[in-house]
Amino acid sequence: MSHRDTGMEVRRKVLGDAHVDRAEAAKTDLDAPFQDLITEGAWGTVWASDGISLRERSMLTLALLAATGNFDEIPMHIRATARTGASKQDVIEAFQHVAIYAGVPRANHALKLAKATYAEMEAET
């Protein structure tokens, strides 16, 4: 199986078919190479590795997004925790590390996004 095929499989497992289908439908000639890079590199190599669990990857990803101030993808990765097994407590622990090692304002904003996303998820069920 190619990195692209593996990446698409893992991407669907973590983010869900609906999310991936929307992203694929929105893909254009302009961003297709970038989407391929993400699918092959991020999903087909990093997320596909069996070195650590999907739960641990969720925690790392959320902490890294918050620590670097890349907040736009936090809601998507909070939603993914329903499939990766990372609990709310896991997310809180990850953001506690962000507060200490990268700054309270970033952790605070990440928690605000997580709270809103969890509330949306609960309202959808």
Automatic annotation (TrEMBL):
Domain spans labelled Carboxymuconolactone decarboxylase-like: 34-116
Molecular function terms from GO: peroxiredoxin activity
Domain of life according to the entry: Bacteria
Protein name, UniProt field: Carboxymuconolactone decarboxylase-like domain-containing protein
InterPro entries on file: 4CMD/NDH-1_regulator (IPR052512), AhpD-like (IPR029032), CMD-like (IPR003779), Decarb_PcaC (IPR012788)
Gene3D superfamilies referenced in this protein's UniProt entry, alphabetically: AhpD-like (1.20.1290.10)
